[in-house]
Amino acid sequence: MDTATSDGARTDPRAEPRPGLRERKKQRTRDALLRAALELFTTQGYERTTVDEIAEAVDVSQRTFFRYFASKEDVAFFVPRLAESHYVEALRARPPHEAPLESLRRAVLESWDTIGESIEQLVPVELHMRAYRMIEASPALLAAHLRRSAELEEDIARIIAEREGVDLDTDPRPRLVVALFGAVIRVTERAWSMGDDFSIDAIRELTTAYLDQAGPALLGDWRDATAGTT
User: Fold this and answer.
1) Sign of the alpha-carbon dihedral angle for 65, 27, 89, 42
2) 10 Å Cβ neighbour count for 24?
3) Alpha-carbon gap, residue 43 to 202, rounded angstroms
4) Cα gap 47→139, rounded to integer Å
5) Which residues contact 140 (CB under 8 A, 6 or more apart)?
6) Please, which residues have CB within 8 angstroms of residue 32's CB and are 6 or more apart in sequence?
7) 77-217: which CATH topology?
8) Fold entry, domain 15-71
9) Residue 207: pLDDT band by 50, 70, 90 thresholds?
C-alpha cells in the first residue's frame, strides 16, 4: 500500500527503506568487527589475534571481515584515520588570512568536537585509548603509525604551502611549522593516554596548554637566571 509524504507525494514503503536498511546493517557489522578487534587486540595482544578470531567474535566469516577491512592493521588504525580526516577537513576550512600556526592550532582544537562524536559512535573512548596504548606498545604498529604520521605531516605541509602561496620544494617553512606542531600533538596525545581522564575536554585543555608552552620551550631560557651564582 502506498503512503503519503509530507508534501502529498505517494511512495511505496516496500521499495524506499531497503537501501537505508542495508547500509545500516553494513555499518553495524563493520562497527561490531571494529569493536571486537580492538577488544581482542588490547586484551590478548595484536600479534596473537587472528582475523578468524575477530570474525568469530561477531559470528561472521573471514570473507565478511575482508569486505570491510583489508587487514588487521587496517582495523587497528581505522579510528585514528577517521580522526585525521576530521582534522584535515577542519584545517582546509580555516580562513585564508590566518597565520599558519594559528590555523593548525584552531583546526585541532575545534575539530575535537566532531572527532569525539565520531569516535563515540564507533567505539567507547576508553576502548579507543586502550587501543592507542596498544599501538604505542606494538613495534609493528608503532612503525606503521610513525610512517603514516610522516605522510600526514607532508600532506598538511602541502596544504599550508598552498594557503600561503609558497613552493614547498624550495621554502622550508611549511614543513618546519608542521613538524613543530606535530611534535606537540604527539606529546599531548601520549600524556593524555597515560592519564586518568579520557574525555574530549581533557585532551582539548591539554592540547591548549602544550601549544602555549611550545614558544617558550623553543625560545626561552630554561635555566633559572640566579642558578649557579654566588
Assistant:
1) negative
2) 11
3) 25
4) 10
5) 46, 47, 73
6) 58
7) Tetracycline Repressor; domain 2 (1.10.357)
8) Arc Repressor Mutant, subunit A (1.10.10)
9) confident
HEC readout, the chain: CCEECCCCCEECCCCCHHHHHHHHHHHHHHHHHHHHHHHHHHHHCCCCCCHHHHHHHHCCCHHHHHHHCCCHHHHHCHHHHHHHHHHHHHHHCCCCCCCHHHHHHHHHHHHHHHHHHHHHHHCCHHHHHHHHHHHHHCHHHHHHHHHHHHHHHHHHHHHHHHHHCCCCCCCCHHHHHHHHHHHHHHHHHHHHHHCCCCCHHHHHHHHHHHHHHHHHHHHCCCCCCCCCCC
Rounded-to-integer distance, Cα 198 and Cα 211, Å: 19
pLDDT band at 6 (very low <50, low <70, confident <90, very high): very low
Kindly state the cell numbers that stand for 43. Answer: 586484551
Contacts (Cβ under 8 Å, ≥6 apart) of 73: 140, 141, 144
Question: pTM value?
Answer: 0.76
Q: Where are the domains of the chain?
A: 15-71, 77-217
Q: Cell 596498544 sits at which residue?
A: 134
Q: What is the residue whose three cell numbers read 566532531?
A: 114
**CA atoms of 108 and 102, how far apart (whole Å):** 10
Phi, psi of 124 (to 5 degrees): -60, 145
* Fold match between domain 15-71 and domain 77-217: no
Give the residue, 14 or 34, on which the prediction is more confident. 34
At CA 35, angle to CA 62 and CA 71, rounded to 5?
A: 40
